[in-house]
Each structure stands twice: as C-alpha cells, then as structure tokens.
Write a structure and sequence with these properties.
Blueprint: H1 2-6, H2 14-27, H3 30-41, H4 53-60, H5 64-74, H6 78-84, E1 101-102, H7 109-123, E2 160-167, E3 171-176, E4 182-185, E5 189-192, H8 198-212, E6 216-224, E7 227-234, E8 240-245, H9 250-256, E9 269-273, E10 276-281, H10 283-289, E11 303-306, E12 312-317, E13 323-326, E14 331-332, H11 333-339, E15 352-358, E16 361-367, H12 372-375, E17 378-379, E18 384-387, E19 397-402, E20 408-411, H13 418-421, H14 425-428, E21 433-443, E22 450-455, H15 457-462, E23 477-482, H16 492-517, E24 531-533, E25 540-542, H17 543-560, H18 567-581, E26 591-596, E27 602-605, H19 612-618, E28 626-638, E29 643-650, H20 652-657, E30 670-675, E31 684-689, E32 695-698, H21 705-711, E33 725-727, H22 729-753, H23 768-777, E34 786-787, H24 791-795, E35 809-813, E36 819-824, E37 830-833, H25 840-846, E38 860-862, E39 868-869, E40 889-892, H26 901-923
Parallel strand pairs: 7-11, 12-18, 19-23, 26-30, 31-35, 36-40
Antiparallel strand pairs: 1-8, 2-3, 2-6, 4-5, 7-8, 9-10, 9-11, 12-13, 14-17, 15-16, 15-18, 19-20, 21-22, 21-23, 24-25, 26-27, 28-29, 28-30, 31-32, 33-34, 33-35, 36-37, 38-39, 38-40
C-alpha cells in the first residue's frame, strides 16, 4: 500500500497499473481508490496533461460516480478522454483542439453582451440583425476523431495517417507528415502527401501497396489532425491568434472569438492568405438563405479580417423581423423588405414610408410596393423604412352576432338577404335564439350614425318572400337575441347532476337547522321527528315542507326581483348607448320605453317605420296580466319652446288585430301596458297547527280568516283559539325597518352615555363599549311580523277581528296547553300548571319569589295570543285586572337603576361627610 501511495505524482508503468487493477477493488477503500485514480490522472508536466491509453483503461474500471468526481476535480472531459483513447500510438502527440482556442488575452464576451442587451432593452431601439448568431459560448463539441473526415480535407505537416495492411501481410503504420510534406514508410521509403486532399492520398497509398505487395488490402484514416495558428483581426470581440485544427472554418473561428462587434460588418468578412484576400464571406447568405458555400476551411497562417460595418437601414413596422440591416452594394426597397422576412399580412404596402436624412433635413418618401417604381426604389445608408398597419375595419362583409352557432363576419354579396345569412334555424341558430325579435344595425352616413331595422327571424327563414327577409347592405350587423330559456336546465345529464347537487345542499341545510334549533343535550341523531320551529309563529313544521316552500320562495324572488337587469337589456345596452350618443338638438335618441304587463319591460331601439306590434314583440309580448281594453302612450313634445307631456289612450285589443286607427310611434315615447284590475298572482296563506287540513291555501283578494279556516275544515277539538299566532309578511318588513331605526337610536344613546362622567361611588356595571357591541349584535335580531288577533271573535264573524288576509300570511293555532310560564328576575324560572283563581303574585311565589334586582313595579303578562296585560300592583291606584289564562307568560324585568348595598352606603357616607365639611366651614 505504501509503495502504491508513494507513486502518486509519478508516471506509472504497465506493471504498476496491473497491480492497481488487481488489488484496488479488494484492498483499497473508496477514499484509497480515489487517491489511486488521482495518481493516474495527475501529470508531472504539461506534456503529460493528457492521460495515456493504459491510464484511461484503469480509470474506466472505477465506478461511474467516482469517474465523474475525478473528472470534475481535475478539469477533465470524460467524453473527450474516451474518444481520444482510440488514437493509436499518439500518446505523446499534442492533441488537436476540439474548437479554436485563443492564445492569451482576456474573455470580454459576456461583459460586452450584457452591456449591449441592457442598452437595447433600456432605450427600446431596434437591434442590428445577425449579431445574435454569435451569442452564447461554444459548447464542448464531440471529438473530431469521431467525425467522418471529408475527402476534400487537405493533408499538411503535422497530420498523422493510420494505415492498416491486412491479408497476405498484416502491418500497421502510424505515419506523421513531416515538415517537407513527406511520410516515410519503413520498407518503401518516402511519399509526398502534403497539399493533396485526403481522398487523393488514400488512393495514392492504396495504389502503392497494390504495386509492391500482392494479396493485401489497405485502409487509410487520419489518426490525429495537425494544429495550426490563425489570426482574427478587425471588429471582432476578441481579436488575436488562435490555435485551431485542420477542419476549422471561418464561422467556427468567429464563434470562438465571441463573434463580431456591432460596429463590424457581417457582409464583408475577408479571409486573407499571404496578404491577399482569397475569399469574402457574406453572413447574410448563411442567416437568410442557409448558404454556407463560402464558409471555407482555414489553413496555417490565415487571417480573418472583419472591416467596419457598411451602410445600414432600419426596417420596422409590420414586417416579420424588425431590425437594423446592413446593405451590400446597391439595394432596392423590395430586397430590403425581403431581408426583414417580408411584410406581414396586415402590412399596408400601398404606402411604405421611407425617411432619409439629407443635408437639408429629413426627406419623406411614400412608395407603393404594388408598382415597379416602388419595388425598384434604391435605399441608402441611414434610411428608416416603416410599413404601417392596414385598416382593421371589415371590408365587403356583414356581421352576425348573438345567439347563433357561428357568429362573426361573413362575405357580403349584392342582393344578400337575411335568409342567405341564416338559412336553417336548427343548424345555424342556438336553441336559445328568439325567432320573433331580431335587429339589423346599419350605418347611414359618414359620421357613422345608425338606424335600426326590426324583423322576425323565424318568418324570414321560413318565408323568404315575406317583408321580414330584409335585404342587407355592406357593413350591416345582425343581432339575434336570447329567448330567456335556460337550455342547460333541459340538458338531461346536467339536470341530473344539478338535482343531485341540490339534494346534497338540502341535506346539509337540514342538518344545520337541526343543530341550530336544538340544544346539544337534546339533539339525537336517531330521533324520528324531522321538524323545525317556524320563527314567525312558533309552530312545528315538517322539514321537507319547509324545503319545498323555500325553493318556491327563492324561485319567485329571483323571478320577481325588482331592479334586476334582464338578459335582453344587457344585450341591447351597446345599441341603446350608441343611439343615445347620436341625439342632438335636432332629433332625440331613437329609443322607446315599454313598461307594464310585458315579458321584458325596458328601453328598446325604435326601428325605422316602427309599429306598435313590433315594439310589443321587442318586449317579449304581453303577459297574462295585460289589460287588453286600454294601453297608454306617453309622449314628450315641445310646444312654443316649452316641454309638455301628453298621454294618448289606445285600444290594445284592436291594435293587436290590426283594426282601428294606426298609431305612429315617435322617438322617446313611453308605452305602458296596464295590468288587469284586481290582478294578483299566487296569493297564498299558510295554516299551521290545529286545523283539520293544515297547509298552504290560495285565496282571492277579499277573503278573511274565517273564510280560509272554513275551507280548511275548521279547527280540531284540540285547538286553543285564544292562543292563535298570526304573522304577516308586510308587518315583518316594517318591523325590520323599525328594528334598524331603534338600533341606530340605541347606538347614539350609548355613545352619548360614554361621554358622561362616572362618580367614584357609582360606577357603570357595564361599560359603554360593551353595551355598544351588544347593540351591534342586536342587528342580527330577526323580525317576525306578528299581529295580535282574536281568533274566537273572527270565527264568530266579528267585522273588526275577522280581518282580510294578505299574501304570505301565516296562522298558527296551538293545541290546548294548560301551562303558565314565569320568566325573568325570579329565583327559579319555571312552567307552572294553570290553576283557575291563581294570581300573578301566586305564580311568582311558586317560582321562589323575585330577586333583589327585580323591578316589581313593571311586572307584565304576555298572553298566548301576543297581547300584553299589566297586573294591578300599584299601592295608590287600582285598575281592573283580567284573570290569567292557559299559555300566559309572566315576565319579571330587571331594575336597571339597581345599586347594591355597599355602593349605597358609600354614597350616603360621602354625602354626609361633604355636608359636615360644609357646616364646619360655615360655622367657622
């Protein structure tokens, strides 16, 4: 081991290598193996920088991870080392570079590139074309020994020929071309090969062996190529001398130097040999056409010279590659645009702008590229060529918009009609298309003012000879509107998924309501009574019924929501706004308003030669609530420079039949379709509790509580009419507003209370800030809209008690419940069995009496029907008092001015002390 380690840094012979190969895997650890491999790769001198074939063989026996680690550590390329191992017998020869290597100098390519890119990005100017070809660092290419050698490769001094002779004789020759251009065969003498191509040398060697040796075959290959030195000068990034191999071309040498500066020419790269220019390379041929015929190979001593950039023009606008382009001789405008990749389809070639800087200023040229004069225009250095964008307006087209399968622009042909544009309703229209209302928006003058034409799309398709099949003009826009049908709802698959999602939401709502309306201790997942408590009446209602009612209420609310913009209004909004913008002092905006009993009330465009029936079609037609005997048209007119409003009645029934006088519609008229008298849709009332047939009942306006209960079969024998609870939706809304108002007043009072000083002897039990937060929580209190009624009197036909019912009313008739509840500031809140003859005081005593902070002067009783009774508790005054009844609730409120004994004594002591101090001061 010591002997092996001592050999690190010294050349290893074959015996040492064999020993290492044999014993390294078994004896050395991973660290020792790495040290051993390092001894193989470390060379004592520069001449031995490349490992020999035997050393490479030893390296290959190590694991791949260790090979890569050693290669990174010592800066070696495993791929290059593996390919160089095929170089037979050239262990000590200097390896030809894989790509040109610069001799001396510093690397400034990255710095120059960053400066150029940052400068270009900052000012936004056009970049010179072609210089990006040299961006990036040359990658480590595959070894030239792995590439097939071209036959036209010119053999020179330093090249090594690998000659294999086999057959009758087996010989191997590795012959290096000498300085005089000869190779020397051991048996056959010298042969001149320098200056000839590789193909010629190969045939020459084969012919020599055929003449001198019978029965042998010969193969000739290049074992190692020569290295040579070339020079790069002029406007290159890194000028200087470079060591290259025999296959290096002009572009490869330029890439190795970092490329050409932006001040250098790409079109006049000169290859000089012996002081003379033997080849000129135009990189535009390579970049634009892929022509590399002038990219010749370099020879020893060649010089690449890049002169300063020549004439240059800027090409921008609608071209494929906007950039700065270098000119090469006389260049026409057509050729210059082709260098930029040609004009884009939207480029306007009828007027190409060329700006030229002259001594007298900037000269402007506008050239038509469709003419020979424009194409042959000669551009000069500094010209700025710009191709503008064509007008994106549609030409010779009509536009189809809205509820169509393929909306967009269509080619216009003279005589074209609606039926030519939309020929089949099922194939060209969506299922949601309205066949009774469609518009054509047409521009009528140079100021792009529009007029609107209305037609029935269904009739235009089915009856092409009808007047609805309008004749179109160029640039017309046809609008097809939605008919209001939800097509997704009627899709079977989506409907099933929607129903499933709805069931899941309902189940979640049911579960949450169970939790919210039931105490945790009372909640039982296995209970059978799936009910909920109606907050308005306190009745127990089946959950499924509640869900159905909620769904119905939600649907009606969405359908009848006030202020909601309909889909048709949204579709018409751009047209309406454009018509409003056209209004001036001479003419009003061509719009009308249709309101009342129509499907889509709103503002609509007034079509040319509009009729009353057309505007009804625009509004979706009449609803079932429309009053056919009379409609009204309101018109604003200016009479004697004064605005007046006049109303014109119209017989709607005759107008629909086409009978009677024809009434012309003017701009900004308002058409009101009246509703039938006493028209109310979906008036319902809900009966809960102890009625024979509880449920939701439809009613006619004017029916009373007695009428509805009689229709429901009357009350059951268990009903308690005196405790009936009545809730009204209208009162609920009023109560909500009053609660908001009271809450605001309470907040103001609490805020003013916070400004008052508190005495040291009497502090507030609750801070104003806590009271204010409590008031904010009261905002969530839900109104019930309860109204106190006397159901027994109503059932007897009392005109006062038997009130008319309204839509949304609820009536709950509870069962008999002989219980009196005691709540508030009592010792024990409880429910006591009703005993005739017991007074309020008796029930309070049965609950343990009142607490110390109870306000005994304000005890009150809430009756089962919601009314309030004040018991006779006054010492000085007496009042008549009704007897308690089953279902009553006794409330003992808290005394808000109550102070405890210690606070009272402290206050009294302070008063007496202050009085004593004052008396002492007066006495003295």
């Amino acid at each position: 081991m010591l002997m092996l380690l001592s050999s690190i840094g010294q050349p290893l012979d074959a015996a040492v290598i064999r020993a290492l190969t044999r014993y390294a895997p078994a004896v050395l650890s991973t660290t020792s193996a790495l040290l051993m491999a390092a001894s193989i790769l470390i060379a004592p001198s520069a001449d031995a920088a490349t490992p020999t074939a035997s050393q490479l063989q030893q390296l290959k026996q190590l694991p791949r991870a260790q090979q890569e680690q050693l290669a990174r550590q010592y800066g070696l390329d495993l791929d290059s080392l593996s390919t160089s191992s095929s170089d037979n017998g050239q262990r000590n020869a200097k390896k030809a570079p894989q790509y040109p290597e610069r001799i001396g100098g510093t690397d400034t390519v990255a710095e120059d590139r960053l400066q150029r890119e940052s400068r270009t990005d900052r000012d936004g100017a056009l970049k010179p074309f072609g210089y990006a070809f040299f961006d990036g660092k040359p990658a480590s290419m595959a070894s030239i020994f792995d590439l097939p050698l071209p036959n036209d490769y010119q053999i020179g001094p330093g090249d090594t020929l690998d000659i294999q002779v086999f057959g009758k004789e087996n010989q191997q020759y590795e012959l290096t071309v000498k300085r005089d251009g000869d190779i020397h065969f051991p048996k056959y003498g010298p042969m001149q090969v320098a200056g000839e191509t590789f193909g010629e040398v190969r045939e020459q060697i084969k012919a020599m062996f055929e003449q001198r040796v019978i029965g042998v075959n010969v193969t000739v290959d290049i074992g190692a190529m020569r290295t040579m030195q070339v020079y790069l000068a002029g406007d290159v990034k890194q000028p200087g001398a470079y060591t290259v191999n025999g296959l290096t071309t002009v572009t490869q040498a330029l890439l190795a130097s970092g490329g050409i500066k932006t001040s250098g020419s790409l079109r006049d790269i000169q290859l000089k040999r012996n002081g003379k220019v033997i080849e000129t390379l135009d990189l535009y041929d390579l970049l634009l056409s892929g022509d590399s015929s002038n990219d010749v190979r370099l020879l020893k001593g060649d010089t690449l010279f890049v002169p300063a950039r020549g004439a240059q023009v800027a090409i921008e606008g609608e071209v494929l590659r906007p950039a700065l382009y270098e000119l090469n001789g006389s260049t026409t405008l057509s050729k210059a645009i082709n260098m930029a990749g040609g004009a884009l389809p939207e480029g306007y070639l009828s007027s190409v702008s060329v700006k030229r800087v002259t001594e007298s200023g900037i000269q402007q040229f506008s050239l038509d590229m469709s003419t020979a004069k424009g194409q042959s225009f000669i551009v000069k250095n500094g010209d700025d060529i710009k191709i503008a964008k064509s007008n994106d307006a549609l030409d010779n087209a009509v536009v189809l918009r809205g509820e169509v399968v393929r909306q967009g622009a269509y080619n216009f042909e003279p005589g074209m009609t609606i039926a030519d544009l939309v020929s089949n309703a099922q194939r060209d229209l969506k299922p949601t298309a309205d066949l009774n209302y469609a518009l054509v928006v047409r521009e009528i003058d140079a100021e792009r003012n529009t007029e609107v034409l209305q037609f029935k799309l269904g009739r235009a398709i089915d009856q092409p000879e009808s007047s609805d099949n309008l004749r179109l003009q160029q640039d017309d826009q046809v609008f097809v509107f939605n008919n209001g049908i939800d097509s997704k709802f009627w899709d079977k698959t989506q409907y099933i998924e929607l129903a499933q999602d709805t069931r899941e939401v309902q189940s979640q709502d049911t579960l949450s309501k169970r939790h919210s309306n039931t105490n945790p201790s009372q909640f039982d997942e296995t209970r059978q009574d799936d009910v909920y408590i109606d907050q308005a009446t306190g009745a127990e209602i089946q959950t499924q019924n509640k869900q159905n009612q909620a769904k119905l209420a939600k649907t009606l609310a969405e359908r009848d929501e006030e202020g909601q913009t309909s889909l048709r209004e949204q579709e018409l909004e751009p047209i309406i706004e454009r018509l409003k913008d056209q209004a001036n002092i001479e003419s009003n905006a061509a719009i009308v308003e249709v309101s009342g009993a129509v499907k889509y009330p709103g503002v609509y465009p007034l079509p040319a030669n509009a009729s009353f029936e057309q505007l009804l079609d625009a509004a979706g037609g009449l609803t079932e609530a429309a009053y056919l005997r009379q409609a009204e048209i309101t018109r604003r007119q200016v009479v004697d420079d004064r605005l007046t409003v006049r109303h014109y009645p119209i017989d709607l029934k005759e107008a629909l039949k086409g009978e009677g006088p024809r009434f012309a519609i003017h701009r900004q008229d308002r058409i009101n379709i009246k509703t039938k008298p006493n028209w109310h849709k979906d008036n319902t009332v809900e009966l809960q509790g102890e009625v024979r047939f509880p449920g939701v009942y439809a009613f006619e306006r004017g029916e009373t509580i007695q009428d509805v209960i009689e229709r429901a079969g009357g009350l059951t024998e268990f009903a308690y009419p005196k405790g009936a609870v009545f809730s009204r939706e209208r009162l609920k809304r009023q109560e909500e507003e009053r609660l908001k108002m009271l809450n605001r007043q309470l907040q103001r009072e609490i805020s003013s209370l916070a400004l008052r000083r508190q005495t040291s002897s009497a502090q507030y039990t609750t801070s104003p800030s806590e009271a204010l937060s409590l008031a904010e929580e009261l905002q969530n209190a839900e109104a019930v809209g309860r109204m106190v009624i006397s159901l027994p009197r109503a059932l007897e036909g009392d005109d006062v008690a038997n009130i008319m019912i309204e839509n949304g009313d609820k009536l709950y008739v509870p069962p008999k419940n002989p219980v009196v509840s005691i709540m508030g500031e009592v010792q024990f809140t409880s429910n006591q069995l009703f005993e005739p003859g017991m007074t309020v005081s008796d029930y309070i005593e049965s609950a343990g009496g009142t607490k110390q902070q109870a306000d005994t002067d304000r005890i009150y009783v809430v009756r089962a029907d919601g009314s309030v009774m004040m018991p006779n508790n006054s010492y000085w005054f007496s009042r008549s008092q009704k007897q308690l009844e089953p279902g009553d609730t006794i409330i003992v409120p808290i005394d808000t001015d109550y102070l405890d004994g210690l606070s009272t004594a402290s206050t009294a002591t302070q008063i007496l002390y202050q009085m004593g101090v004052a008396w002492k001061a007066v006495k003295d």
